[in-house]
Here is the input.
Amino acid sequence: MQTCALSLLMFTGASQFAFVTVIATGGNPWAGVATASLLGTRNALYGLRIASLLKATGLRRLAAAQFVIDETTAMAIAGDVPSQSRFAFWATALSVFSLWNLGTLIGALATHALPDPKVLGFDAAPPAAFLALLAPRLRAREPVAIALAAALIALVLLPFVPAGVPLLIVAVLVVLFGLRPASL
Amino acid sequence: MTWLTLLVAAAACYLIKLAGLSLPQRLLEDPRLQRTVPLLPVALLAALVATQTFSTGGHLVLDVRAAALAVAGVAVLLRAPFLVVVAAAAATAALLRLV
Here is the structure.
């Protein structure tokens, strides 16, 4: 039920996975809320990028907003003319949204029929999923360095703070790094 | 997972998306913001990969999940689809636990 609600209402994969992971590992649910929101901030930049292409107003904008994610933005900015971009955005939105939610429903039903998740190696699935989401963002030296530093810092902090908190500290550090004065 | 936090998190994610479509363009055009926001998912996803692989309940551990992550890394380098990457990691962990 809740897993399906996440796919319907949150509909931004990395945030969904992170939210569930923080809570499943015993973290404070509000740390999960913060992590999911921070991972979702990139969608605001996507919206900014495609707002002029979509030209959605009123109710149309309220509906379009839910579908501003990696996939729809990529398809929308691939078009040459706004009408093409709009079509690409909505077509991608509807197909990804329906398949994502169908997949979630099947997964939620299937897990009820499963034995111990460790036997099937399901505890190794989340890191692999996060790695697959991370990989396309590592096409330059700076993000690779940031990723390695973030992983190391999170592991060093982990034994000393409650679950979920290492992620928030990493988030604060990367924001401070990004907003640092240009002279550094 | 409580319904309250789930709904708050979903609402926050929705409002962030809506903000991108609605706020004046210049508010989000600050170059420092443009530089910082894409780094957030990089750092958070990397931290999630590390903590999910090398810890159990607040303790650092090294187990079959590390091998599973290595297999996932190879699958990513081979440009395997998302589900194949995840399935390869799960299968690696399951098989190593059998032996």
